[in-house]
Design a protein that fits this description.
Elements: E1 6-8, H1 11-19, E2 26-30, E3 44-48, H2 57-69, E4 75-77, H3 79-85, E5 89-92, H4 103-110, E6 118-121, H5 127-140, H6 144-165, E7 173-179, E8 182-184, E9 186-187, H7 189-195, E10 204-205, H8 214-220, E11 224-227, H9 234-245, H10 254-257, E12 261-264, H11 266-269, H12 277-288, E13 302-304
Helix pairs in contact: 5-6, 6-12
Length: 320
């Protein structure tokens, strides 16, 4: 397709575009787009409207909820830059107001453009719908063959993982997408856990993640704890996991007693519904069943967190 000019309002869409070999046609991204590394040099069209960098998890949750509740916007679109770039297509989503610009922001941004681009909505709730998004993007951009190759490879890798864990016992798993307050995992992540040979009864398969209580967590008594805070990499997840394990009661959880607590790179492998969710499945399979499942990805994709390595010199927080 000639004169294709793509702007991504979504990190996962940016990853899809590059996986399809369309790096040169990608002319604008968001401030959160960081993979593959070459996209960091692209013009930034979308930034956060809130100064979240110095906020705690609790403060972020409150600020985001307040903004959404009042009808405010979590993102700012550089409308002048958008007009100069003159995209033919804008890739965005209507899945989560927290993850990227959606309906209201798109409507306002389009008003400034003399020529209206095609809007491609990528709003998956499951692994299959992620694959459908890749296929759709391939069709729109004349990259159907490339999309099919990506999907076939993903399915083959998922099948290999399924075979490896087929005869393994399924541990009770808790994936936390937020640690203060506690949020379970949602959408495609419970499906990832199941394929990897685990069970997360508190997760919401195909639905939004929700707040969960300490009694629910204690009752589930997870044997493996995966801390995958949405929007954060492994380093930040390690800090949050250490804070989490200082809370009263956590030392009694089987996962903590058995040293089966892992901080992971949620941005890379869990939170973004793009090609790397398959890597996330393989990572989970390794963390749940290291004797039968290898991990060939980056060493910093995860980190074990042991309670005996945590300093308790600071006051303990309360359970929410």
């Amino acid at each position: 397709m000639k004169d294709l000019r793509l702007i991504s309002f979504l990190p996962s869409a940016t990853e899809m575009v590059c996986a399809l070999g369309l790096e040169k046609q990608l002319i604008g991204v968001t401030h959160e787009c960081d993979f593959p590394p070459l996209v960091r040099s692209k013009p930034v069209v979308v930034r956060s409207a809130l100064a979240l960098e110095k906020m705690s998890m609790r403060e972020i949750d409150v600020a985001v909820s307040k903004c959404i509740g009042s009808g405010g916007s979590l993102y700012e679109v550089d409308e002048h830059l958008l007009e100069r770039l003159a995209p033919t297509h804008i890739l965005t989503q209507a899945l989560c107001q927290v993850c990227a610009p959606s309906g209201n922001e798109i409507t306002r941004a389009l008003k400034t453009l003399p020529s209206k681009p095609e809007i491609i909505w990528l709003t998956p709730h499951s692994l299959e719908e992620i694959f459908e998004n890749i296929r759709e993007l391939g069709e729109v951009t004349d990259r159907s063959d490339e999309a099919d190759k990506i999907i076939r490879s993903a399915r083959a890798r998922i099948q290999r993982t399924t075979e490896l864990v087929r005869h393994e016992a399924m541990p009770r798993v808790l994936c936390l997408e937020w640690t203060d307050p506690y949020y379970c995992c949602g959408h495609w992540v419970p499906e990832m856990v199941e394929i990897a040979g685990g069970e997360d009864a508190l997760g919401r398969n195909g639905s939004d993640s929700v707040k969960i209580s300490w009694p629910e967590i204690a009752s589930w008594s997870p044997e493996v704890l995966i801390v995958a805070p949405c929007g954060f990499d492994t380093g930040r997840a390690i800090e949050l996991t250490r804070q989490l394990l200082k809370q009263p009661g956590w030392s009694e959880i089987p996962a903590v007693r058995r040293d089966k607590v892992f901080a992971v790179d949620a941005n890379a492998y869990f939170a973004r519904p793009g090609p790397r969710v398959v890597d996330g499945i393989e990572l989970l399979a390794y963390l749940l069943h290291p004797d039968v499942c290898p991990w060939h990805g980056p060493a910093d994709a995860f980190s074990p967190v042991r309670i005996e390595d945590i300093s308790f010199s600071e006051p303990l927080g309360k359970i929410f």
